[in-house]
Design goal:
Strand order of the largest sheet: 3-2-1-4
Distance between the termini: 57 Å
Helix content: 25-40%
Strand content: 25-35%
Number of strands: 4
Mean pLDDT: 85
Largest sheet: 4 strands, antiparallel
Structural class: alpha+beta
Radius of gyration: 14 Å
Shape: globular
CATH class of one domain: Mainly Beta
Order of helices and strands: HEHEEHHE
Length: 99
């Protein structure tokens, strides 16, 4: 049998240094661990995709919960979601522009 691939290493300190937006992508197919992921956007518009089943997710969620204004309740709702979509849970307030 083939051996499972090691998950890609993710440096959370590096991700959080430029974090500007946090979203979650969900899917109607399968369980949330298999088909949902975090989308972490940087101030320079680079995106890091982290599947919910990745080993770093427990540490990631703990750090996300410390962000001022992070929508933890919405994250909990999304964990059980069977809808396909992308939901923004946090945006860096210092990057929000007034129109």
């Amino acid at each position: 049998m083939p051996r499972p691939e090691e998950p890609e290493a993710i440096d959370l300190d590096e991700v959080f240094a430029t974090l500007a937006e946090v979203a979650v992508r969900t899917s109607e197919h399968g369980s949330w661990q298999e088909h949902a992921c975090f989308l972490l956007g940087s101030a320079s518009s680079q995106w890091q995709v982290i599947p919910f089943g990745h080993p770093v997710v427990c540490d990631l969620v703990a750090r996300l919960r410390q962000l001022p204004g992070f929508d933890d309740d919405r994250l909990l709702d999304l964990i059980g979601s069977r809808e396909t979509g992308i939901t923004v849970l946090w945006r860096d307030p210092s990057l929000t522009r007034s129109h």
